[in-house]
Amino acid sequence: FFFSPACLGIQLFGSLAGLPCPVAGKESWNYVKVRDGAHMFWWLYYADSPSAEFKDLPLVMWLQGGPGGSGSGFGNFAEIGPLDTDLKTRKTSWVQAASVLFVDNPVGTGFSYTETPDGYATNVAMVASDMLVLLKQFFTEKSEFQNIPFYIFSESYGGKMAAMISLELTKAIAQETVKCNFAGVALGDSWISPLDSVLTWGPYLYFTSLLDDVGLADVSNAAKDVEMAVEQQQFEKATELWSVVETVVEQNTNGVNFYNILTQDPDIKVSEKHVINIHRHVKPLHRQSLSQLMNGPIREKLGIIPKNVTWGGQAEEVFSNMAGDFMKPVVDVVDQLLSAGVNVTVYNGQLDLIVDTMGQELWVKRLKWEGLPGFSKMKWTALYDPSSPGVTGAFYKTYRNFAFYWILKAGHMIPSDQGPMALQMLKMITQQL
Ligand SMILES: *[C@@H]1O[C@H](CO)[C@@H](O)[C@H](O)[C@H]1NC(C)=O
Ligand SMILES: *[C@@H]1O[C@H](CO)[C@@H](O)[C@H](O)[C@H]1NC(C)=O
User: Fold this and answer.
1) 332 lines ligand 1 (CB under 6 A)
2) Which domains, and CATH codes, for the chain?
3) What is the pLDDT of residues 367-388, one digit of tens each?
4) How many Å lie between the centroid of ligand 1 and the Cα of residue 282?
């Protein structure tokens, strides 16, 4: 442990934007070189609970979506980290119940960076092999975490990466190349079967009064084009057509918010008519205020970010390099995890459009997992919202090594929309409740 120069500055000249300096045993961060010229950034918060030592609580790695969205920025400050984007204490931070590790992946995301244009990952297998390099290094450097139950939680495209990473990690542990106590993976509003998501956008919006018959026909026709491209294995084309469907949805819904159908962002106008908009899913995670925070006081606090690296500066390249992989499903990977005995949880927000619950139900019902008939026959259990006594906050069902959580009144970013419910879910999945 050492004080970064920026932190010495804070020590000498008082606090910088109220940011505490790293205290040994509280937080830690570093880069790992995962390939030549390719560097990945991680940021760890040790669990901070009044009733338990960090050694008695699990370790959770959080993976953001996009690809290109930053866990160290968005997940940390907008969802589950100890401070919110105003640097005020978050009451529902996951750090109360677990040590939390944010990793900016794939390479080029957040503070991670590549020195050369060919350093980006182009498929999820490469994303997983980069992450395995990072995890091997992390558990060597932080050997106190080797025996602590390790969970991977994820959101959106992060779930697709989490599934593949979990599979590779399971193999690496069996081969003893990574030392850790892997306990399970949780796939939040995850891009596991992109086509199932796109094909259910129309029906979901129709049944929630956001499309009329004419709009439903428009959206369904556009979605069929994506289906055809996927069937013909034209995945790059499918990604372009996916973006076209989004435009058709926006035009027919007066700009519904893909991340939560009940909130509308007045700053986002339905103006770009035919733009193939890969920015749509990377931009909301890089709002100007977050960018200023990360590229201002946070990078100063961290003290190890190279001068020519900008947080979010390579995000769009991360996405475009993955365009050929984006629409490929990883349902078979989830099946492999289940048959390998890995604990898998799917959780989804009721108000999420981009990865709507209807689409998740579809691919789950197609799993080859032998426990599926048993799971399907079970009734779900209601959970009360910890912040509103007597109000249903979620439903869940768990059977053998698979669980599903239906989170009510939450969109795509579940911990931002329903913080107390998300924290309770974290505790349940990590066997603290
Ligand atoms: C930053 O500058 C150094 C030195 O000029 C160079 O080696 C490195 O590749 C640059 N990094 C990026 C991400 O451009
Ligand atoms: C998976 O979850 C069950 C509880 O549902 C638990 O008994 C088991 O230990 C978990 N497996 C691992 C590898 O943590």
Assistant:
1) no
2) 27-192+326-430 (3.40.50.1820), 194-282 (no CATH)
3) 999 999 999 999 999 999 999 9
4) 24
